Amino acid sequence: MGSLKKLVKKAKKGDGEAFVSLVKQYEDVLYRTASKLLNNDEDVADAMQDAIISAYEKLHTLKNDEYFNTWICKILINKCNSLLNKKKNLSVINDHFLPEKGNDGFQKIELEDALNSLNEVYRLALILYYIVGLNIKEISEFLKEPEGTIKSRLSRAKSILRNNYYKNEGVMVYEK
Amino acid sequence: MKNSFEKEFNQIMSEEKEMPVKVRKSLDQSYDIIRAKSKKKKVNFIWKRVATAACALIVTGVVLTNEHVMASINEFFNFGDKGIEQAINNGFIQESDSTITDQGIKITLDKHFSDANKLGLNFHLAFEDPSILNNVREVSMDYRLKNGDGDYIYEFIPDTKPLKGDNRYTSGSEHQNPILDIKTGEIQYDVLTDSNEGVIPSLRDAVIEVESVNVFYNTGEIKKIDGNWKLSVANKDNEKPDLTVQYAMKDQTSIIQVTKANANPTSLNLTFSLDGIYENENTFVDMKIVDEDGNEYGVTGFRKSTRNNKTIISTNFPITSYSEANKLKLIVEGIGEVELLKK
To answer: Which family does it belong to (chain A) (predicted)?
Structure first.
């Protein structure tokens, strides 16, 4: 943490190299976050670039240096959401449940795919909790939703995943 | 086979994924952009409020010696460098008011200051055709500062143009546009340059040669307007007595060996050496000077070099000769401290 604060301090003074070091330490979480929210590598690359440059330009607005990681992650999530909103005209996922992956019943559905197909409010709650590492209170502040809502989203998200996961287990067994 | 949902779920949420080449490239490109921006930023920064103040002074036609105006300048010139604020409050600023018009752009060098450590320039640009500025994001200039003896002190020139000097005096600089008035075509362009080694020569009959005005648009396009603007740099301080105050180590056996500590009007330039090679630059980020009253002064940048198995650091602290401090303490966190006494 000491090193992070030092780097943030340097970066705030305009040291680009310090900023790059900060982001590099955290790029894996950023990548995993973006890749779970977006559907293709191209969008992930765009959102990450957009978020990183935007964070550099807005670094002076970061009030508490210790929260750099959460702060940049929030910027990234906002970028991902903008990108998703833009594309909403093309495809909308309103169903809370897994989409059918074809009628043949032979298609393999993995947990990863199930997660990717989850409605975005549930997916975001899981990402913020499990990948970004925010607690319920922080997620509630970030999404401007009551803590109870966040708790139920997390629980519901896992329940959907679990149900679909087991629902498709038979298919996999049959497939073998 | 799938009897352990929780385990697999946690695995998926925490697994490290190899980054695709496309994302990797984009990230590396982002880092390059930031490094470039950082360089530009460093070549820029501090003059925002200086310019605003200068502009306000032109409008009101007030001179700098008035006490009331000094207070206003302090407010306007509050660009985060206490040393420069103090210098300006003590009248360490020159009014040039040199103006040239070319290509429909009138460029004025309003004010400037310089000592061995820092150099500030405050320009005003007026566009005859303000429509050029529609959707403008930033305006900068390609220019060179040439001293009366023909030596180029500082060149803010893109890589596409050759340098005329050897760029040995300055470490970095920052620029800003505190005023971008599209309606009137008025632009303020401010520059602060510094020298970590404290080697900026005194300005004598210096000239600023402006070669291009660059207009950056929000769309990402750039309009480069080439021209020829030569602005003379007045320097009445040549006649003033030497404003440098020197300090020396109290304890000559300190592990921090200070070889130079010169307080000038804008800052204290300091060079010290340590035995051994310190690879990690972060070691020096938090070094500071503490004065007799316990006031602390940090740094915004420094130069690190190595010679004969020694690490040498050169930097500026925002404490000035106007502070008239008799005793200062240099503290390098994690390494040690050394007391400095006025010579």
So the answer is: Belongs to the sigma-70 factor family. ECF subfamily.
